[in-house]
Design brief:
This protein has helices at residues 24-29, 42-45, 49-59, 76-89, 100-114, 120-124, 188-207, 213-236, 241-261, 265-277, 281-296, 301-310, 320-337, 354-364, 366-372, 379-389, and strands at residues 13-16, 36-39, 64-67, 93-98, 135-139, 151-155, 163-167, 175-178. By secondary structure, the protein is α/β, with parallel strands linked by helices.
Length: 390
Amino acid sequence: MCDAEFIEIRVPRTLVGMGATSGLGDLLKSLSPKRILIVTDRGVAGTGIVDTVQASLVSAHLEADVFDGCGVEAPVSGIEQLTQKVKSGRYDLLIGVGGGSVMDTTKAASILAANEKAMVQDLLEGKPFHKSVPKILIPTTAGTGSEWSTAAVITTDTSDDRTNPYISPLNLPEAAIIDPALTKDLSARATADTGMDALAHAIEGYTCCRANFLTDLYASTAIRLISKSIGPAYAKGCLRMADRYQMSIGASFAMLAGSVAGVGLAHFMNIALGKRAGITHGSAVSLMLPYVMEYNLISAPEKFAEVARLLGENTNGLSTRDAALKSISAVRVLLSDLNMPQRLSEVGITAADIPGLVDELMTYQSFPLGLMNPREVRSEDATEIYMKAL
């Protein structure tokens, strides 16, 4: 691994635990907000989770309005609508309640609303800003870990439909609440999709080029927690709250590792794949993950052997390479157990689509790919990996 010259880790003030949302009111007292806006999407708004958040505010003698217009993958249109809402309503605190798309929308709008004349295009171009509207993030899935990330992922639905990360310390919230109780009624499909996204963050964060001893602590813990708990949570999560708890912690730990060290090729290959196949981010990343692990294995077989052990595989008596290979088979078994796609053909991709997928990967993702992935990737390498996955 090629350690960075120095490591910077920022973790927001975080309340963690079953029912931790009830502490929101007390948390807000230190921020003294005058006008509060809860940011969510229609799906979350329909579950009663927003009512739980509102109840915590009422108990602290606080009130909040609700914006439920967030879209999938944080589209520009939703960010612009929220920004206008924050400005016109003069809100001085945002509470993002939802999955990664909601939290990313909240992050982007908090920056745009605080900076006069700022536009989404400024974020897409990476322009730095120095202030944002204060925000609290409350995840409702155990997946993206966006509550602990300095990134906001934006989709340009108004132009070329590209996914763009905006990296800034301003994306970190003033506080986060990790309440596994909010994930109790998450569907089996959403549990699998978001959980495998988190596991991919952890595995790629652990094996990427920029991994270091601190991110390894978070990533290895996340791999162990998620791999142990995702099956029971998928099978009947409403009764397996200890597993929901571990999944929630694992997702945040995985994102911290991924945010500080980086991720890998599976996360970059999924961007064009998800759009072309019309599948979720978690499904696209996890589909590519075993094939990418196989390609990257030569870069650090000792670390992949450790991944196998963290996934619960018995590697006693095996050579380092054979132990490392068990990490790949373990991921494949897990995907099978979760009834997730493992072939591109299962999601409608054909050989004719692969040149376009490779072209988009190399055109738009070559810089971060070169920075993070532990093995160099050329167009012909990406083509071969996609073909193996077909």
